[in-house]
Amino acid sequence: MSGEILINVTPNETRVAVVENGMLQEVYIERASKRGLVGNICRGKVVRVLPGMQAAFVDVGHERAAFLHVSDITFARQGDNSELNGKPATDNINDVLNDGQELMVQVVKDPLGTKGARLTTNISIPSRYLVFLPDTDTVGVSQRIEDEDERIRLRKIILDAMGENTQGGFIIRTAAEGVDETDLHEDMEFLQRLWKTVLERNIAENCGEIIHEDFPLIMRTLRDQVRPDLERIRIDSRETHQKAVDFAINYVPEVASKIEYYPGERPIFDLYSVEDEIQKALEKKVQLKSGGYLIIDQTEAMTTIDVNTGAFVGHRNLEETIFKTNLEASLAIARQLRLRNLGGIIILDFIDMLEEEHKRQVLRSLEKALDKDHVKCHISQVSSLGLVEMTRKRTRESLEHVLCVSCPVCEGRGTIKSVETVCFEVFREILREARAFDAQKFLVLASQEVVDQLLDEESTSIAALEEFIGKPIKFQVETLYTQEQFDVVLM
User: Fold this and answer.
1) Can you tell me the distance from the alpha carbon of 233 to that of 256, in angstroms, rounded to the nearest whole number?
2) CB neighbours (10 Å) of residue 409?
3) Long-range contacts for 223-229 (Cβ within 8 Å, ≥24 apart)?
4) Any idea what the Cα angle at residue 129 is, between residues 375 and 399, rounded to 5°?
5) pLDDT in tens, 157-174
6) From 25, 120, 233, 451, which residue has the greatest number of CB atoms within 10 Å?
7) Could you give the dihedral angle defined by the CA atoms of residues 88, 90, 96 and 97, in that order, rounded to the nearest 10 degrees?
């Protein structure tokens, strides 16, 4: 598998496209006016403790107070001037937090919709090869490193280097596979120095101030997205290209030679049809090559994905047609989850299969496709209703939430009342007004479509209504009115 990363930079926005085998797989967007908060470490102040939810709202300098659950609180960190020091572990939020208390917290989820950010006091700071955990002294190894001998080697290197002056523990990242001892030691020393700086700033800064800010999108991409099969990274800004090269030389030297400046006249996101793929990712319907299709509905509670055979009729029998459609859909679903950055609860409605072996193969295909996803996923078995329930960790807003807002006409419903429905509402409102007030005549203000329907197909009904109330009814088009809007004016 060959990979490439395209980076489009403008003064207001940075976009990163991850392409595998010539097909867009992931998109990351960061705007200058709305940078992501995940990974930032802040000094917060408790503004409200909620015993009924075993949680607290914490002011970290954002527009909305952030949310901190008791399960995300560490109780024994030392040396950070925290008021949590020495307190026993407990499930009661009142035993560990009180209004006005100050503490060091890290953002683990960006604000989503009407919800504030999600916080934890379990601090973690990533580098190229390691993740530093100041609240533990253990050493873990990424599950993606499957070679047991390599896992033992890496773990031994870190444990041998952890002396009495080393505070905290480490998780060895996937990128560390095959890395020599010197590079790992340098990463450890860097993280130790960085943590010392964080502790010093925590004491010096006021509440609501950022103590440590995660790298901008481009630097995070170089740190987290680079894999052995990556062929090159193309950037369309000369200044940003130089910054990326300088960063890579210091932090990820093996990547520096792969970073290229893209000077072409053709926009960089026109390569591999990235712009077109982004537009398709905002649509509900995803067409499959066989003729089948997916319908993706994203709501606040969950995301549902429905699989349909569409125009695909197969060649042998119905069960084989369904099986092939579901297999193809499993690969498309895995790609769409990454591309759209869908998270939370996801319900997959595959076409009902009769054979148990077919169900197992479709699940295996989905699991294998999701192995490429660096975001943690959990998949259940096929339920009695033929549904597959899964979760995908959500830390940042989905592509749709970043690029779109709710429709001002339908207010996010996805539908509006028909012209006929609005006409009948107009009739009822005129009757209501005629009974309540003594007017000489009535003026109906409505959209062009509604007025046309009233004067054409509903003209007989209008004449009957005028005769019934004994008053004339006039109509006026309001070009700024939506199809659902109307007013009945007394004259």
Assistant:
1) 9
2) 12
3) 223/126, 223/127, 223/128, 223/251, 223/252, 224/126, 224/374, 225/5, 225/16, 225/18, 226/175, 226/252, 226/255, 226/258, 227/3, 227/175, 229/1, 229/2, 229/3
4) 25
5) 999 888 766 778 999 998
6) 233
7) 160
- For 153, half-sphere exposure in the C-beta direction (CA atoms, 13 angstrom radius) is 13
Please report how many Cα atoms fall inside a 13 Å half-sphere around the Cα of residue 124, on the Cβ side.
15
Q: How far apart are CA 258 and CA 236, in angstroms?
A: 14
Checking DSSP bridges between strand 442-446 and strand 387-392, what pairing results, if any? unpaired
Q: Do the bridges between strand 66-69 and strand 303-308 make them parallel or antiparallel, or are there none, so unpaired?
A: unpaired
**What's the token pair of residue 21?**
């085998």
- The model's pTM: 0.80
User: Which structure tokens are listed for 139?
Assistant: 């050493």
Which tokens sit at 289? 């090559």
CA dist 160 and 277 (Å) reads 48
Please name the residues in contact with 69: beta carbons below 8 A apart, sequence gap of 6 or more: 53, 54, 55
CB 326 within 8 A of CB 353: yes
Chain segment 126-151, per-residue pLDDT in tens = 988 899 998 888 899 988 888 999 99
Token duo for residue 233: 């990274």
Residue 305 forms beta bridges with which residues?
Answer: 296, 348
